[in-house]
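seq as requested:
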Amino acid sequence: REVNRVLESLKKGETFKRQDKRIPPLEEKISKALGQSDSLDDVIFHLKNMGIKVKTGRGIGFIDEKGVYFKGSAIDRKYSLKGIEDLLSYKNQEKQMYNQHRNLKV
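struct tokens:
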């Protein structure tokens, strides 16, 4: 009998594939909403227009069109509440503008 061991897989650098097919479309919508937004309230507004409900508290959670709840960090670490706040921060926006401006010059 062979047992798949998680720690050994991590040490070998193997990646894990998600089994849930509902996450990629949700991740795409969150990413699109983040690209259009300047604040967390804007993100929530854009996601609501796309049919995604958002719950915030100590963390953030998303409820898709079928009513399935996903924690932000379970989708991807960058979609945790702290990760989203970092993505929307002034420092990060300034960095993105600098990179876009630099790419236009080249």
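The chain has a mean pLDDT of 84.
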